[in-house]
Design goal:
By secondary structure, the protein is an alpha/beta fold. It has 2 domains: 128 residues, Response regulator (Rossmann fold, 3-Layer(aba) Sandwich), CATH 3.40.50; 69 residues, Arc Repressor Mutant, subunit A (Orthogonal Bundle), CATH 1.10.10. It is 57% helix and 14% strand. It has 10 helices and 6 strands. Strand 1, helix 1 and strand 2 form a beta-alpha-beta unit. Helix 2 runs parallel beside helix 3, helix 7 packs across helix 9 and helix 7 crosses helix 10. The longest helix is centred in the middle third of the chain and has 21 residues. The mean pLDDT is 87.
Amino acid sequence: MIDVLIVEDNHEVRLSLVNILKTDPDIRVIGEADNGYDAVELSKIMQADLILMDIKLPRLDGLESAKLIKEFCAASGREVKILILSTFYDDEFVLRSQQYGVDGYLLKGLAFSKLASAIKNTCNGFVTLDRIIYEKQNKRIEDGAVYKDKLGSLTKTELKVMKLIVNGKKNSEIAAELFFSEGTVKNYISRILSKLGCKNSRDLAVFGIKAGL
């Protein structure tokens, strides 16, 4: 039996997921949460095998919740699988989910049979990705060489700044890590934007992801 905790802020969607999963004899829904904070707290007291988690959540988003849950379980000697179920596909979301140890990423709208199979496969140790995400990741890998070539125009320091941007660091955090002033960081970012033809830090993050940073 697979014990599942469902985290979804939309009441109707959450109820639908609960009712659907209850029809599978191998899956048992043991809890629900409508925000990220409660998801973290429930994960501490419920022995869920898998958490089905949305990303866009109040109080604490799904990815940050996943990170905290993974850290807590690791410190407690427990293992819990986390499967993202979201409306949103974004390179940054997928990258962050992988960095935080999330075990799968699905897009809403898939058939019940596929959702049930994904839950079971994830609990069996497989990394579960939506077909669209899988295909985009493969395309990103194929295109990565082009982006890597463009990174060759950056200095070693600019590349360090770029990597920190990809890792979601704010300007103040980059400054602290590299022992720069925030003004110096902004100057580096301006030069990187100019060299790579990007408009803002978000574009840099996407560029870095595609380059495999």
